[in-house]
Automatic annotation (TrEMBL):
The keyword Ubl conjugation does not apply. This is MarR family transcriptional regulator. It comes from the Bacteria. Keywords: DNA-binding, Transcription, Transcription regulation. Pfam families: MarR_2 (PF12802). The keyword Transcription applies. It comes from Streptomyces atratus. Residues 1-135 form the HTH marR-type domain. GO terms for molecular function: DNA binding; DNA-binding transcription factor activity. InterPro entries: HTH_MarR-typ (IPR000835), WH-like_DNA-bd_sf (IPR036388), WH_DNA-bd_sf (IPR036390).
């Protein structure tokens, strides 16, 4: 029970620390996740919505809501697929690229700060243990 108690307490403490970083860039965590997935996809930073939804484990409706907000903010754009006009791709705009790069930089610095009590070996051990637990539960 101690492990899950500590994990729960960490979740309560980490959530606002993470959300604060994203909010400084005008983002919610889910919006950051979409922008980061597009950024990780590499140039031209474009994916089809179903690939994004699968990567982020979202329903189509959930993905549509996030894309609508990001598009309204000028961070992504929907582009018709030139080979299939029934389909479209989601692409980072120049503004979206700048926002996500700045947010990723701040997120990495925040993560470093939050994990500073651990040695590099402890961080690696924690990462491995959490991955193993997550895979077993999923």
């Amino acid at each position: 029970m101690g492990v899950f108690g500590r994990l729960g307490q960490l979740s309560l403490l980490l959530t606002p620390a993470l959300e604060g970083v994203f909010a400084r860039h005008g983002l919610r965590r889910g919006e950051f996740d979409v922008l980061a997935a597009l950024r990780r996809s590499g140039s031209p930073y474009t994916l089809i919505p179903s690939a994004l939804a699968k990567t982020l484990m979202l329903s189509r409706a959930g993905m549509t809501n996030r894309l609508d907000r990001l598009e309204a903010d000028g961070l992504v754009e929907r582009r018709l697929d030139p080979t299939d006009r029934r389909s479209f791709h989601v692409a980072l705009t120049d503004r979206g690229h700048k926002v996500v790069d700045a947010a990723v930089t701040d997120h990495a610095a925040n993560e470093s700060r939050l994990l500073s009590a651990l040695t590099p070996d402890e961080r690696e051990t924690l990462d491995h243990a959490l991955r193993t637990l997550l895979q077993a539960i999923e």
